[in-house]
Each structure stands twice: as structure tokens, then as C-alpha cells.
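Consider this record:
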Amino acid sequence: MKKLLLILLSLVLVISITACGGESGGESGGESGGESGGESGGESGGESGGESGGESNKEFTDVSFFDGVFTYDGSKKSITVSGNLPTGAQVEYTNASATDAGEYRATAKISCNGYNTLTLNAVLKINKADITGLSAEPEQSVKQDGNSHLPTYSGDPASDVDVKYYLDGKEIDGITEPGAYDVQIVFSGKNYNELILNVSFKIKLSIGILASDVIDSFGSVPDAWEFLPDSFDPDYRLVDSEVTYDDFVAVKDIPLNGMGKQMNMVYGILTYTELASSYVNKIYGAMNIIKSLYSAYLDGSPDDYKSFSGNAGEFNFSIEITESEYLLYASIGPVNVTLYSNIGDEEYGARIQLTDTTVVKYGVNGESFTFALNILNSAAMLVEFSRDDEENTVGCVYEYLTVGGIDVIGTSAMIEVGEDYTVIIGTKGDFIPTSDSRNCEIYSNESGKLVGTEVREDVDGIIFNTYWFPLIDLVGINSIKKIDEMNGTNADTIYINGADDTLHTTLVGLAGLTNGKATSRRYDIEFKTMYFFVYDEESEKYESVSMEIPMLFIQTEHIDSFEDDFAKSNKKALNSASVTLTVTDADLEAIAFGYDVILPIYDSLKELITREAIIEYCKS
């Protein structure tokens, strides 16, 4: 019995001695493949703890937690505690395993009964991998075919590698136009070092499509009249004969399709566009022949594809390609024509040398049109039209007449084509001599007829604002006669409705100055120069003619009293007791819009284009 008791006591003693106290291999190793295993703290940094149990706990010894450095390869990388750990020891890891490249602050917390808890620190570092197996030829080229192109590379990038292309620091998705480009192919990913392949990339001009590109770039012959309402076509301005007023003329027989001096300025320039177009049209009519001849030439793969000459039947031509332009030269009799097209944008046009001293040029760019004329030592004119987003036309006109190199007349105008009315404002008109004046003409888009005019005349700081209306707008006047004799207030003596008594006006300021306008007329009828066209069958051309047309004018501040003023002063000549002004509110609003809104804009633009600028434009 005593022997058995001794054996049991011996077993208990052995168990108590060996529990958590024997030496063990612990946890070790980690995954293979680390580039280095520098020491981080090994046995340092431990935290003591655990239960005292009346006796002090042991410390972990001969235990290390080393840094681990790896290179990304898509697999998980880990670092672990190494050394001799007691049997039953537990290790809790934080940030000790990762797959993506980066630097991780790892901890290993070791605990065991009878031991103070130990926390060790280390760094797990996974370096980005180099991208390998990819290459690109440093010089590459493709032929222009109208499609978008990029340089190519060899090799297959990993699925988590992005590929992007850059030109001048900006990402691109392709290049279409001919030229030489320095392109970067950039491979990148969060786990990789960026790889850049530099390529000198060329889009070679394909002469197989060059002929079409060149010829098509010249567009078509522009029609400047398209910027104006259809009713402004010269056909609508035709008259058969001149009306004279030596005897009474019925008001209904006075032509209403004329235009004032401002609009005539526009027509005067646009008629030159038709003259220029008559020559340019001959070239455009032979474009298919020119394209065919040039294509056949290019099919022979010539060394110099940038120059070519040929004959299109009625004229000889030559093609020239520069760094910035396509050019086509042609001579039609004594007239030399140059078509041009700017490479890289929408602008094209023509320069026509009509004579040694006369040249016209036009240019088309998107929704804008410019036409200029220069007659050496005589005249320089330019008109510009453009359409806005609502298809309304806005334009400016400049005209300089020159004698002996000195500008003797310089005028300009601004035109706006709205939905219902066309407004044109400028410095041409029948004004008080020496006044600083503006003429605002309003036309109906539907009929092309002059609705009315508002004129501003500044005489030494005194402003006269006057409306001008066609005589047909005044109901109560049926006929009119004019005698070229001054009547004291009017340059002519005027009779109405077959009466012997002359037309009378109402004066302002008879008893003194009224707004500085002593003895000025509240209203009157004056004859304005209006412009029309006749058609010459023999030359097949429109010819401008002028005609005197009676117009009613009213000072704007007296329009409300006009009917009473007129009736009181002309009782003997009227067929009824009153007269009626039939100008519509819409017409008056259109006149007010031109005068109040467009006129200030015109004043800021009226000298924008100089004579020298027009001449220079025609030269280039």
C-alpha cells in the first residue's frame, strides 16, 4: 500500500514539473520566398502579465518575431514567431499576413499559463512587382484610313494591370489625323511598379485617299443671300420704270419694294459675290475631273505628291499642299482664282483676282461667312454674316471709299435678321448736314418691304429723333405731287390729293425754344432716295437704280398728336375730316428694338474693321 502511494506521489510531482515548463520548438517558419529577415525586436517589446498564483510567472525566452520582406506575386505572405515556445503556448497575430503590396505593422501576442504575456512587433513588407514580358517597337507607323489608331505592344499584361496611352500628358484613345506623335504606353496597377514604353508613332498620309480629302475640303460655292430672308432676293426689288411726281401720282402706285441707303450698302457688296461666284462656279463644275486626274497621278506613287498640275478642259489648274493649307490655282481667261482650305479646321474660301487692281475674297467657317472687296486706290468693302444657335443672322458691313490714298467716306452698318423683322443700322442716310447721325431701317422678313425707319440726328448736342414711314401707311392721302421749289421748311413743295393748296406742317417752338428745337417740324413729307433693281437680259445681270420715294416723317415725341396735328393743318387738302396712321404696334416695337437695343451695339462696332484690315485680308 505504501509502495503504491509513493508511485502516485511521484507521478503527480513529474506532471507538476513538466506542465508549460518543457522546451518546445514553438511556431516557426512562415512562408518561404522572403527576400530578407531582418530582426525587429525579437525578444524585446514584450508585455508581462498573467496570474501570480502566489509565485512569480516565468518570462518567455529565446523567442523572436522578425521582419519579413517579400515581392508581390499574387499569393499571401506571412511572418511568424520563431524560437522555443512552451508546450500549450498560444500566439495571436495582427497584420502578419497580406497579399497586396504595402507595408504592414504586425504584432504577435504570446500567452501561456505560468508565463507573463509577451507582445512582439515586426514589419511585414510586400514590395510592388516589376511588370515584365512587355515590349513595344520604339518607332511605329500606320497609314491614314479615317479610323483611330494607337501604337501596339508585345506580351500579355496580368489581369490586374491597366494599360493607358498618353500624348502630351493627356490620356488618348486613338489618333486619326496624319502626323508624328510621341506616345507613351503606360502599364500600371496597385501591386506593380509603373512601366512606360515610349513610342514615336506616325500616322502616314495615305495618298490613296488624299485626292478626295483635298478636293472635298474646298466645300461648295457659298450663297451669301442665304443669310438674308428669301424676300430679300434681288428679284423682289425689280421695277419696270421710274416714277416721277411732276403730276399727281396715286399713292398705291408708288413702289414699296425699295430699300434705303443702309440696306443698299449690303446689296452693293453682295452683288460682287455673284460676280466672283460666276468664276468660282466654273472650277467647282470641274471638280470631279480634277479629282480624277489627281487620283490617277497619286496612283503612280509619285515622289512629290504635294504638287500637281493639269487641264480641266476650260482652264488649267494646279494643286499645292502646304503644312497648313490645301490650295488650288486656276486661271479662267484673265481672272485668277485661288481656292483654299485650312487643314485641321472647317474654314475654306476663295480669292479672285478680277483685274490688276480689283480683288475679292470670301471665307466660310462653320456658320459664318466673310466677303471682302478691294479696288486699288478706290474702295475697300467687307461684309460678315454669322448665324446664332436660333438660326438668326447677325452681320456687319464696312465700306471705305478712297481718293488719292485718303479715305473720304467711311461707313459701316450692323444687321440682325430676327424671326419677323430685319434691322440694319448705320451712318448712311439723308441727314441734317454736319449732324452726327444714325439710320435704323426695319424690314419685314415676310415681304422684304421697308416697315419704317428711326433716325437720330445730333446737331451740336441737340438730338432729333424721327420716325419715317411709307406714305401708304397714312390713310387719308391718295395722291401726291412734287415741285422742286423750296417752301420755307421743305426742300420741295408738295401737294396731296389733287389739291391746289400745298402740304402744311406743324412747327415746334414758334414762341421760343422747345427742347432746343426752335422752328423744327413735328412732321412732314420728304422724298428719300430708295434703291431698286432692273434686270439686263443681255448681260444677265441685275443693275441697281435709284428712285425718289415720298416718306412721312414724325418727330418721335409727337407721334401721339400727329393725326390731329396733320388734320388741323391740312383741312383743305384732305378728302375727309381726319387721317389715320396704320403702322402696327408690332412694327413700332421692331423699330424700338433696333433703335434701343441694336444701335448701342453698333456704336461699339462701327469702326472695328479698318480699311487697312480689309486690304490685308484680300491680300492673304
User: Anything to note?
Assistant: Helices lie at 2-18, 207-217, 261-285, 287-299, 562-569, 585-605, 611-619. The chain has seven helices and 37 strands. The first strand starts at residue 63 and ends at 65. The CA atoms of residues 325 and 343 lie 5 Å apart.
